[in-house]
Each structure stands twice: as structure tokens, then as C-alpha cells.
Design a protein that fits this description.
Elements (H helix, E strand, L loop, with lengths): L6 H9 L19 E12 L15 E12 L2 E5 L14 E3 L3 E4 L4 H7 L9 E3 L18 E5 H8 L21 E4 L3 E2 L6 E5 L8 E7 L3 E5 L7 H6 L9 H17 L2 E4 L4 H4 L11
Parallel strand pairs: 3-6, 6-7, 7-8, 12-13
Antiparallel strand pairs: 1-2, 1-5, 2-3, 4-5, 9-10, 10-11, 11-12
Length: 286
């Protein structure tokens, strides 16, 4: 979330506790139609919300959620973001960094996947909106999944100046062994127009969002960190720690036009209030 280079060190220390042995082999639930599962991948208490909109709300507190999503398609599955490290479940009081963010996990991502018969080993594609630690905290659970990532994000995350972008390669070192597909444009994951990764640059060099066309529910765009909560979306406010403010504003305008043109709903992944009205796994959308 924040462009702080050593934030990743905290996630690395915690992620050592992640129980990879939770990846028990189970048969996935056969998918006859497209399904979307929403999962709770942690919470973040913000002690000074002005970090998200400079000059507004100094020292005010705000609670954010941290969301992950599983897309189950007749031709495979895609996990979108992996949340805070599962190891935080062992720290019920949470971990506070920079006296601004207190991060907690009450139920592991691995456990939530197993509950719906989709253990980590069944995930074929791994889509990470961007490589900050609250979105990439559990990538080590998916060593065989093909990583789908914008080329700019990959180059920044694995380049010599990763820390400049708030990344810590040690946190996601396992991804070096994953199959990877570097993207330079929007990407149709299953080739039928139902699940599309969209380039939404600005928050980080290669930030991306996920567009899903659900036959019964309608069209949904999962935000990544395009925006963190509804007020910033409404007023088009950009956090001071974004990689490129002007690109962020342009992207928000483009996404607003895209949502209108496609009659789509924006699901803001960190918005606790919006998220409270969304059904979570084992329930699903189709």
C-alpha cells in the first residue's frame, strides 16, 4: 500500500510463519460456469488517513479491509491478489508499522481456499494487482501457478531499484521460480472475454485491475489499489505515495469511462464499508 522500502521486511519476517503444509492435495470443485469467490485476507487500521489524501483528515483513523478473490472458470482458476501474510494469524494484536498501519489476519487464505475445495495447488493462474506486501503476502503458497503481471511491474519488482517502489524482492522471492507471462496490454485470461486483466498504471509502475463478466451478477472490476476507498474514488484523490500522480488521475478517469460503457461495478478492494455488503466464501457470485 505504501511506498516505503522497508515495509517489505516486516512481511518477510511474518511470512516465514506461513504454513505451506496447508497445501493438502484436494480435488477442486468442478466448475460448470464462471464463479467468483471473495475472501477476507486481513485488515489494516490506518491511524492517520491523510496519508491517502494529503491535507485531509490529519490524525483521523480509518479501518480498511484486505481482499483476495478466486475466479473459477470451466477452463481453470485464477487467484487475484494474496493479501497479508497468513502468518499474521498468529499475532492477534496485529503488527503496527510507521505508527500508521496496524495489520491483522483472523483467518488464513490457505484455510479459506481449502474450505471451498480449491486448495492452493489447484490455482492455475496468479494475478497480482501490484507487488506491495499487502497484495503479495502469500505468493509462496502457489509455486506452480503462472504469474500474470504487467512487464513494467515485473521489471520494477525484480530490478535493482525495487526498494524505490516500495517493493522487497525477498518477500516474493519464490516467484522467480514460477512460470510467468509478462503483459504489455490488457489480457484475456481464458480467451473468451469473461476474465480480463486491465492495465491501470499509476499506483505502481505496472499496476493492473481485473474485469469479470458474470452472467447472473453482472460486470465487476476488482480495483487493486487503483483507489483505496469510496471517498477518494468520488473525489478522484491520489495518495502522495503513488508512483505517478498524473498517470493515476488519468487512469481513474479512463476507468470511470470504462465502467459506464460496460455497465460495470467497481469493487474497491480495501473499502471496508463496501466490502461488508459483499458475500464471502464459501458463498460465491456467478
Amino acid at each position: 500500500m505504501r511506498n516505503r522500502s522497508n515495509l517489505g521486511h516486516l512481511f518477510l519476517a511474518i511470512s516465514v510463519m506461513v504454513a505451506l503444509t496447508a497445501c493438502v492435495t484436494e480435488k477442486p470443485v468442478p466448475a460448470q460456469a464462471l464463479r467468483l469467490y471473495a475472501m477476507n485476507c486481513g485488515s489494516i487500521e490506518v491511524l492517520d488517513v491523510s496519508v491517502f489524501h494529503p491535507g485531509i483528515g490529519k490524525d483521523e483513523r480509518k479501518m480498511l479491509t484486505d481482499s483476495c478473490y478466486l475466479v473459477v472458470h470451466p477452463n481453470g482458476s485464477l487467484l487475484w491478489d494474496t493479501g497479508l501474510p497468513d502468518g499474521l494469524v498468529q499475532v492477534p494484536e496485529g503488527k503496527t508499522v510507521y505508527n500508521i498501519f496496524t495489520m491483522r489476519v483472523t483467518k488464513t487464505l490457505a484455510a479459506q481456499l481449502l474450505e471451498i475445495g480449491q486448495g492452493p495447488e489447484t490455482v492455475g493462474y496468479l494475478g497480482i494487482s501490484h507487488m506491495h506486501g499487502d497484495h503479495a503476502g502469500n505468493v509462496g503458497l502457489f509455486p506452480r501457478a503462472t504469474l500474470l503481471i504487467q512487464e513494467e511491474e515485473y521489471d520494477a519488482a525484480f530490478g535493482p531499484d525495487a526498494g524505490k517502489f516500495g517493493f522487497d524482492p525477498a518477500l516474493y522471492a519464490s516467484l522467480r521460480s514460477n512460470p510467468v507471462r509478462k503483459l504489455k496490454a490488457d489480457h484475456d485470461v481464458f480467451g473468451d472475454g469473461t476474465v480480463i486483466i486491465k492495465r491501470t498504471l499509476g499506483h505502481t509502475p505496472g499496476h493492473q485491475a481485473l474485469y469479470i463478466k458474470l452472467p447472473k451478477t453482472g460486470n465487476i472490476l476488482l480495483s487493486g489499489d487503483l483507489v483505496h476507498f469510496t471517498d477518494n474514488w468520488t473525489h478522484k484523490r491520489v495518495p502522495g505515495f503513488n508512483f505517478d500522480k498524473e498517470r493515476s488521475l488519468k487512469t481513474m478517469q479512463e476507468v470511470e469511462e470504462f465502467l459506464k460503457a460496460n455497465n460495470a461495478t467497481l469493487w474497491i478492494q480495501h473499502d471496508l464499508e463496501q466490502n461488508s455488503g459483499i458475500r464471502h466464501a464459501p458463498a460465491y457470485y456467478e
